[in-house]
Amino acid sequence: MADKYDVIVIGAGPGGYVAAIRAAQMGLKTACVEKWVNKKGKVVHGGTCLNVGCIPSKSLLEASHKYTEAKHDFGDIGIDTGDVSMDVKKMMARKDKIVANLTGGISSLFQANGVTALEGTGKVLSKGKVEVTHQDGEKATYDADNIIIATGSVPVEIPPAPLTEGLIVDSTGALEFQETPKRLGVIGAGVIGLELGSVWNRLGSEVTMLEAMESFLPMVDKDIAKETQKLLTKQGLDIKLGARVTGTEIKDNEVVVQYTDGKGEQEQTFDKVIVCVGRRPYTQGVLDDDAGVKLDERGFIFVDDHCRTSVPSVYAIGDAVRGQMLAHKASEEGIMVADIIAGHKAEMNYDAIPCVIYTAPEVAWVGMNEQEAKTAGIEVKTGSFSFAASGRAMANNATEGVAKVIADAETDRILGVHIVGQHAGELIAQGVIAMEFGSSAEDLALTCYAHPTISEVVHEAALAVEGHAIHMANRKKRKKQKA
Ligand code: FAD
Ligand code: NAD
Hints:
Elements: E1 4-10, H1 16-25, E2 30-34, H2 47-52, H3 54-73, H4 88-113, E3 116-119, E4 121-126, E5 129-133, E6 139-149, E7 153-155, E8 168-169, H5 171-174, E9 183-187, H6 191-202, E10 206-211, H7 222-234, E11 238-241, E12 244-251, E13 254-261, E14 264-270, E15 272-275, E16 279-281, E17 314-316, H8 327-341, E18 355-357, E19 362-367, H9 370-375, E20 380-386, H10 391-395, E21 401-408, E22 414-421, H11 424-436, H12 441-445, H13 456-464, H14 475-481
Helix pairs in contact: 1-4, 1-8, 3-4, 3-6
Bound molecules: flavin-adenine dinucleotide (FAD) and nicotinamide-adenine-dinucleotide (NAD).
C-alpha cells in the first residue's frame, strides 16, 4: 500500500492544479495525478488550457493581430512598415515555447507548495481509494480522505465531418498548421471558431464559417452580437448562419463540404476544415464500476452547487461538470472545493462568471443579456455607449465597439454587462466586481474613472442607463438611452 493523502486530485488542468495548490496551502497532504503526455513523451501539467487551449490560442491570436496591425493599421498612424510578412513556423515555435514555459511552471508551483505529482492515469476505485496506472503499466493504489475529479473535456466530433489527418482537424489540429491554408472551412461559429477563424483569416486564409444556428452568438446581448458580426464580417470572415453540414468528401487532397441552408443543398471546397462544434466532458476510465459516482443525462459528473458528487468526500470540478467550460470557472471551483475540504465555508457565484472571446475587438460579457432578463420577467433599463465617442479609443486607433449595461428597472441593480471593443476582456472585470458587490448602475455611474482610459466607456454606459451619458451628442440616441 502506497502513501495516504488528505486529498488526491485527478487531472492537472486549471481546475485540478489550482485545487491541488490551494489544498496544499490549506495544510492538506495533497497529490495530483496527471496523464497528459507532450510531443516529447513527457507528462506535463496544465491540461487543455495550457497545452492546447487558452494559452496557445491566445499566443496565435496576439501574433496574428500584431501582424494585421503592422500590415494594415500602422499606416493610419504614420508608421511606414514597408512590406510585412509572417513566418508561420516561427510564430508556432514561439507558441510552443510559451506552452513549455507555463506547463513547466506548474511543476515548479507543485514543488513550491508541497503537492506530490503522480504521473499516470487515475481511477476512483471506491470512496477513499485511487488507483494510478503509471506510463510503464505499473499500478499503485493510494488512500485519500477526499478525491477531486478534474478530468476536463474533449472536442465533440460529428459524423458528417470525421477528423482526417491534416485536412479535417479539431481545435488542437488548427493550432498546429505549419502554413496558412488558402481556403479554410470552419464548422461552428462559436468561441473556438471565431478565435481560430480570426487567426487564419488575419494570416491570409479565405475563411468560411458554417454555423448550424440561425442566430449569431445567442448568449451575447443582441446589440453586441449584431455589432460583432458586422465587425468580423468586415474583417473578411464569411459567416454563414443556418448552415448545417451534412457530409464531407476528400478529393485530391481537398475537402468538399456539403451543407444545407435556407436556399437548399450547397457544396464548398476547402484546403482545410476545422471542426469546432463544442466540447464534451471527459470521464473515460476515471470511474471504476464500484466508484458509485453518478453522471447526469448529458454525461457530466453530477454535482451539487458545492461540487459534491453523489459519493461523500468525492468532488468534481471544471469542464467535467455542469456549467460553462471556462478555465477560470474550473479554477474557482477548485478553490471552493479545497476550502470546503479544509473545513471553511465557501461558495461560487455562478451568476458572475465572465466570458471573453479574444477576437479583435474582443467580445466580453457577464450576467444576463437584455433578452434573457426580459424572458425571466424582469423589467430592465439599459445604457449603451459607443467606443467611437471615447477620446482614448480615438487615440488608440480603436473606435469600433459598444458597451452596454443592463440593470433592473425597479432596483437599478446591475444584471449584466456586455461589451465588444478594444480590451473588452479587461473591461469586463468592472462588471464582474460590480455584480459581486451587488452594485447598482448608479454606483458605477458615480465612480471616478481615470481619464483618458478605455474604461470610461463602461462609465458612460452606466451613466447612459439614466440618460446621463456626458459625451453623447446625438439627441435621438440620448433619448434612446433610457429606452
Ligand atoms: P482540462 O484543462 O481539460 O484538464 C483536465 C486534465 O485532466 C487533463 O490534463 C487530462 O490529461 C487530465 N486527465 C483526464 N483524465 C485523467 C485521468 N484519468 N488521470 C489523470 N489525468 C487525467 N477557457 C477560457 O477560460 N479562456 C480561454 O481563452 C479559453 N480558450 C480555449 C481555447 C481552446 C482552443 C480550447 C480547446 C479551450 C479553451 N478554453 C478557454 C477552455 C478551457 O481550456 C477549459 O475550460 C479548461 O481547460 C477546463 O479545465 P479543467 O481543469 O476542467 O480541464
Ligand atoms: P461553442 O459551443 O462555443 O460553439 C459551437 C458552435 O458550433 C455553436 O454555435 C453551435 O451552434 C455550432 N454547431 C454545433 N453543431 C454544428 C454542426 N453540426 N454544424 C454547424 N455548426 C454546429 O463551442 P466551441 O467553440 O467548440 O468551444 C467549446 C468550449 O470551449 C466552449 O464552451 C467555450 O466556453 C470553451 N472555449 C472558451 C474560450 C474562451 O473563453 N475565450 C475559447 C475557446 C473555447
